[in-house]
Amino acid sequence: MSLHPHTFDIIASGAHDTKNALFNALARVDIALEALRASDTQSGEKQKATRNLKDARRYIEHSAERLTKLLSVFRVDSSETPTTLLPVFLPDFVEDVLVRTREIEEGGLSLLAECNYADVWVFDRDLIADCIVNALQNAARFARSRILLSVCVVGERLCLQVEDDGPGYPESLLPDNLRTGYDDCGIGLYLAQRIAALHWRKERTGKLILGRSESLGGARFLLELP
């Protein structure tokens, strides 16, 4: 099995960070359990235990998301046929993505979705959904108040775009620098770049475009599929 040259570095870096996050979660769970077991637990101690359990849940969720990305990287770089191309009804696709990212609005941000193409397009639904979910979660980390997901067709390309009103992408996360950006954002963008390139039709391939949002002023993530 032949892997992309950077796959092992990405998996090793991600596995190390995931291990640390899981140990952090376990330590917080132990603290919470010890407090709850105490027979003289007071309301203040219960609140502390609750906070630790919530933090543990956040760390575990973060680790699960990171492992999902790493598995997607492995799938893309190790399989001879990494994509499953099938017709996807775009309004349903957008709805599924919103269900997976409902915690964004629960956290106080405004997430608006616009699907301007109520028809089907052929792509790998699971891999592209992972890319868009990751883009929305990254936007939620930096957005001040608003995030916009838009889907449209321009010419013969499907455009899936995520914009926010945050500070925008740093230089370290622009496509030419992704080989060294192995944090959460870096892995997700690297993966999106690779997945886009695996979608091709009539000698044209998909591509990832990063820039600044004209409407919201922050980061602009654009995945174009032929």
Task: Report on this structure.
- The chain contains six helices and nine strands.
- It has 226 residues and is α+β, with helices and mostly antiparallel strands.
- The chain has two domains: 72 residues; 140 residues, Histidine kinase-like ATPase, C-terminal domain (Heat Shock Protein 90).
- Helix 2 packs parallel to helix 6.
- The longest helix has 36 residues.
- About 2% of the residues have low confidence.
Q: What is the strand tally?
A: 9
Helix segment tally: 6
Work out the strand percent: 15-25%
CATH homologous superfamily of the largest domain, by name?
A: Histidine kinase-like ATPase, C-terminal domain
What is the CA-based Rg, rounded? 20 Å
Q: Structural class of the helices, strands and pairings? A: alpha+beta
Q: Can you tell me the residue ranges where pLDDT is under 50 for at least 5 consecutive residues?
A: 178-182
The largest sheet is: 5 strands, mixed
Order of helices and strands: HHEHHEEHEEHEEEE
Specify the helix fraction band: 40-55%
What is the CA-CA span between the terminal residues? 28 Å
Shape: globular
Count of individual domains? 2
| CATH fold naming of the largest domain | Heat Shock Protein 90
Second rung of CATH, namely the architecture of the largest domain? 2-Layer Sandwich
